[in-house]
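User: Modeling request: complex.
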Amino acid sequence: MAKIAVLGYGTVGSGVYHVIKTNSGIVEKNANEKIEIKYVLDLRDFPGDPVEDVLTHNFEDIINDSEISVVVEVMGGLRPAYEFTKRCLESGKSVCTSNKELVAEHGAELIETAEKHGVTYLFEASVGGGIPIIRTLISSITSERILEIKGILNGTTNYMLTKMSKEGLEYGDVLKEAQEKGYAERNPSADVEGHDACRKISILMSLALEGQVDYKDVHTEGITEITKTDMEYAAAIGKEIKLLGVGKNSKEGSYVMVAPFLVGDESPLYGVRGVFNGICITGNMLGEVMFYGKGAGKEATAAAVVSDVIDAVRNKINPKRIKWACEKVALLPFENIPQSKLIRIESLDTEAGKKAVESVFGNMDFIQLENHDDEFAFISPKQSEAELDEKLSMLLNKDNIDNILGTIRIEE
Amino acid sequence: MAKIAVLGYGTVGSGVYHVIKTNSGIVEKNANEKIEIKYVLDLRDFPGDPVEDVLTHNFEDIINDSEISVVVEVMGGLRPAYEFTKRCLESGKSVCTSNKELVAEHGAELIETAEKHGVTYLFEASVGGGIPIIRTLISSITSERILEIKGILNGTTNYMLTKMSKEGLEYGDVLKEAQEKGYAERNPSADVEGHDACRKISILMSLALEGQVDYKDVHTEGITEITKTDMEYAAAIGKEIKLLGVGKNSKEGSYVMVAPFLVGDESPLYGVRGVFNGICITGNMLGEVMFYGKGAGKEATAAAVVSDVIDAVRNKINPKRIKWACEKVALLPFENIPQSKLIRIESLDTEAGKKAVESVFGNMDFIQLENHDDEFAFISPKQSEAELDEKLSMLLNKDNIDNILGTIRIEE
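Assistant: Request completed. Predicted assembly structure:
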């Protein structure tokens, strides 16, 4: 019998309680022993909830109980989750978490602490909800040089972009509806400004590169500037706009970024819509594989946490070693990354405006939407951000180029 | 240093050799020791190939060498692969394989043999090529009751169906082309009659149900009867025809089948085209997750085999226990499975024919293709195979129903 504690009885915490109770037989069979929740830590009371029997308000109850071998940390945020996790590991308790902020910030250090004390720090649920992507990176894709990880990592923004695309709505209206439905937070910035996706791609790339990809080094753009007209351009070229986390690893070095991309139907990410996540991994032998599923949701995320608990219980004697060193990985400067973009140009005389574009970029195919007489777009050839910025500055000085209305990267 | 032997220097065998040589550093790091190929067994000679240095024609060299801790069996077929595998396991050597025929037929027994001798029998590459689906079932989806596995498991037939759909070609022409390109064998029956997909879904469902799903019990239909006109009906209702392996596990019992299905774009399998595989797993907590990638190919399959080798080396002391008992799982009779189908009716007087259909099935929406005046189709309500067959017999006795041209199941 393994006794565990759960820190936090919010959405994921109550989900963990539910999964362990509902699937107790399966959990026991796979862990090779019964798993019992001895404590749930939360500051609140839950009168009438069966959790009352095991509820405590005091973390010391847990840390001082030598029967507890595994602790589930699903509080979120850095404080006090970091101290609690660190103390648990130091006292020989494995920790399983869904806390992406903490993993992105202190993952390498906590893995090291765990190893030092002969236990494990597991975080399957921190990326992709129920999709078993972390375990795949650690345990399955082991004979590969990983060349690329690319994914739709945030369900809220994917839901919003899908809705804008399918229903022709503006960003603000879709955000309002997502907030009403509870898909987006009242303060949505972590999702819509790309910070959540940034933490997730940083975790994945840290595992791929076996060092610390610092999320603060990752160039991150959100979806707040995406408009209904951008969606019309996307449709006109047979693509959809998705917020992607992208990490590449080549001989020249590695880079990581988060930004909206135009994705075509030759990509398996094209069909990933609504609240779903999709993560593509390209290996030097494997080619491209994709993992798809709901990236959030109480039970899916909880199921991923419980799989980690089973792992921790099963491997008590021989805990899993995760390669993620504390040393920071140096990323290539963002400005050097070659990319092609859809560029929207405002021009009262679009025919003259197109000539001006060609005087800077050479011959181009232009995209002219119906009902938009005062603008057009083109797809810039692949070049570095720095080169493109320079050309766009030149362009802005030309006659008949009134403004650059926006640029969106093309996925490839 | 772990010394291994490879049985068979065909496509996958030479791929394994290539992956271990090319990615030797990564392989060593993940296995925690260097991996050296000491023998490759093949009856043929390979003059000038570097494999010559380690080539043997005699299996006894391998079985008698106590230095060999892991054997890769990539010969295919049942004989002598079964005897070789059994003898390796009995002499304390783990075996890693891509041989789906052998795994489907003797998997449970060989796992038992391995456990008895403190080693492992691993078979990641037997399903889905490089997609890490077996390891996911064994190691990741451990807190779940698996409710359904559904997948495009055969790249050859998916390539053919995609080609028929996109280019409006007939089955025979596409088969010929696939054979010329080397995607289909000269005797294509294992692929086109669904036997390959059947073995794969049987392996996956055996792992999900932890008992022997005998592939001989699985109702299996291939794609040989699919026509260009079927593809036109599919397009008319916004669906695509895919050969699916389907396993369901409910309170009433389990069933497994392989057949062509009409798949709509609400399914993540809809976008799985060409030589790609896609496998959906639905858990009672997790919801639906999908795994996608190239289902075959020398390097992808070899990479999956090498991941197993790394697992076997890394877990020498504490080998993985795989739950797949020898006892046969009783499957629900195929005739009881409720399904809805697209039914194509030949009728010289289609208006009268449609009335005849409604006299048996009640009010229906009919699908009438242009340029097909002598036939129409409808989608039957969800009912058991047995009930539907009875109704179709009644229908055939009606006036103005000249023939039933075909039926295709609807995926849901």
